[in-house]
């Protein structure tokens, strides 16, 4: 059997896409609360104030805030060993600037952790998953401002202390390399430059964006240092969105492009957080892009001292790169690219590539030699709730099965992979489009794209399938997943 005995099988979500209850328990508005709904044909709108007549799906999401006991019980029924979730920063510090944390917010997650433990589930907690108090965007332009580092640390310290016996596995920033893309301005860095309104076409200042990412690197490193001081047993990781590419052709120029893409998109951030310093290729990248960063001497010390304990990744699909013009294009998570003629696509046009996962895991492990956990992988699809309350989702099972087989392959290759938390284990609001109809879950939530519905939970066919996968530690009795 490829999977180790204590492999962390489970699921993953993020506070802003799951919880709802956006104004309850003293929570402040977060940047995610200001995103309207969209579709893959029409982009989300970024509001600076709540606008009459617009719908803000993250405010309601799946209403986990009022359903958490039931939801965690369902995870327990599937046999989850781990659950990756995030804490809503604005639940703990509503404006991000209070001197003391909001007790009602702390109590909420305390209860969540208690339920998880009661169900034998290990929490893996992201400190910031595409969410920060809106006030920090309004007042500081988010991570563009160095002062946000200290505000973040006040928050990190508060939750490290309060949950020091409840949580062992932490992640600092979700998909920190999203900041390598203009899309990351608002969602990942809380930067809303003058004139920004269209989620997919934001006003970009590349220097500010990379400065914001630098501030996140320092904040992440300092959180690692402080977390270890609070509890030396803490395991604190980073999180990189894997957007792997292949060269479309064997033209050596495409090969160089492929290599540069891996460096700029994945290794730039991962090297800083894992090796504790900017990579050798960073100066040239900065020069070519007119980036001139304000890096203080003490920042470099923090980066060196605050290296992460493990690496976590999201993985959904792969793309191709080429210098050739007029090639077919495809969509993707965060980033599209040239279409790969060998791959099928999801309903949202993301190419499905399980072998790419095995390739990626080997690449990452070969480079870093750190334990790896996949904290996001899954298929967003349209599901149909039948009259008898069943949901037949063989397409999801096929997707997951092929990726689990790829994981088994990587484990056999020797990769130290210690867990897998399937993304959106319960249906949640999509980050890119705000749709509820783009469903990932094993658990169906009866709500449409506008928050209409009973919010009743239903078990999909994949729910029972995944329960068996976990029960058999990645296999079934006949040895296949
Ligand atoms: C990842 C994010 O990029 O992709 C998640 O970390 C997101 O927050 C997931 O939900 C899937 O993307 P989408 O747009 O289908 O929700």
Write a short abstract of this structure:
With 481 residues, the chain is an alpha/beta fold. 37% of the residues lie in helices and 13% in strands.
Written account of the structure:
This protein is α/β, with parallel strands linked by helices and 481 residues long. It contains 14 helices and 14 strands. The strands form four sheets. It has an eight-stranded parallel beta barrel with strand order 1-2-3-4-5-7-11-12, surrounded by five helices. Strands 6-8 form a two-stranded parallel ribbon. The protein has a two-stranded antiparallel sheet with strand order 9-10. Strand 11, helix 13 (394-413) and strand 12 form a beta-alpha-beta unit. The chain is globular. 6-O-phosphono-beta-D-glucopyranose is lined by residues 14, 17, 130, 174-175, 241, 314, 333-334, 376, 380, 423, 430-432, 438.
